[in-house]
From TrEMBL:
Record flagged with keyword Cell division: no
Biological source species: Dyella koreensis
Ranges of residues in domain HTH deoR-type: 3-58
The protein, known as: DeoR/GlpR transcriptional regulator
Keywords of the record: DNA-binding, Repressor, Transcription, Transcription regulation
Length: 251
């Protein structure tokens, strides 16, 4: 089998099964595990999969830049945002993450809502400038332009002084065993700090993020209390999360 054909077969198997195992591929294609690992390295370098120990998982397309991500799954993100907005109670202190789905969440907050929103995202803050009942607390730091969020030691220091009711988290990958992940190391540290400062964690997950993985782990999947997904997300995709005790809310 030619290398190009083998790589295409690997991608086909990954799409079909949701993961591939290097040892199994080596036996199936009659080549060494070293050859398969080289194939996986090259496919990962092209952004076509995410390598993990022993094999690979689908790579999240949500790792693209902010402007590009705003064009991905806009209707589904809006539906997820509307459902998430319904979870916020008057008087709560709410952390809203950066990212395009979270921007939609800010846009769907009712005009009558009285609450405090803590965010490290200038995009979220700007969306709420004219909201009459929401106090906005900005977390500062170095601006990570790719995601338009503050990161770094200053951001984490400020986060450590917050106690929130709920944290709405944006991610690029949600996987039952690979956990919650994102494409930048510093951003992962900030998200992990936010998890620790909230009584409840709600992960907003459009279809392209589910059972996908990115290079930097935020936390285990069980750090999430609730997963908000699209209404037509297949049951087989969400069942592993429900089995972990995570509530699955369909938008």
């Amino acid at each position: 089998m030619l290398t190009s054909h083998r790589k295409q077969a690997i991608l086909t198997a990954l799409k079909r099964d949701g993961q591939v195992i290097a040892k199994s591929l080596s036996e199936e294609y009659g080549v060494s595990e070293d050859t398969i690992r080289r194939d996986l390295r090259e496919l990962a370098a092209e952004g076509l999969l995410q390598r993990v120990h022993g094999g690979a998982l689908p790579s999240s397309p949500a790792a693209a830049d902010f402007a590009h991500r705003e064009q991905i799954s806009t209707e589904s993100k809006s539906a997820i945002a509307r459902k998430a907005a319904e979870m916020i109670l008057p008087g709560q202190v709410v952390i809203i993450d950066g990212g395009t789905t979270c921007v939609q969440l800010a846009r769907h907050l009712p005009a009558t809502l009285q609450a405090t929103v803590v965010t490290h995202s200038p995009s979220i803050a700007v969306e709420l400038v004219d909201h009459p009942g929401i106090e906005v607390v900005m977390i500062g730091g170095r601006l990570f332009k790719h995601s338009v969020v503050a990161v770094g030691a200053a951001a984490i220091e400020a986060i450590n002084h917050i106690r929130a009711d709920v944290y709405f988290m944006g991610v690029t990958g949600v996987h039952p065993t690979a956990g919650l992940s994102t494409g930048d190391l510093e951003e992962a540290y900030v998200k992990r700090a936010l998890v620790e400062r909230a009584a409840e964690v709600v992960v907003l997950a459009s279809a392209e993020k589910i059972n996908a993985a990115s290079p930097y782990v935020i936390a285990q999947a069980t750090a999430a209390n609730t997963l908000v997904v699209e209404r037509d997300t297949p049951e087989e995709a969400t069942a592993p999360f429900a089995a972990l005790g995570i509530a699955v809310l369909r938008a």
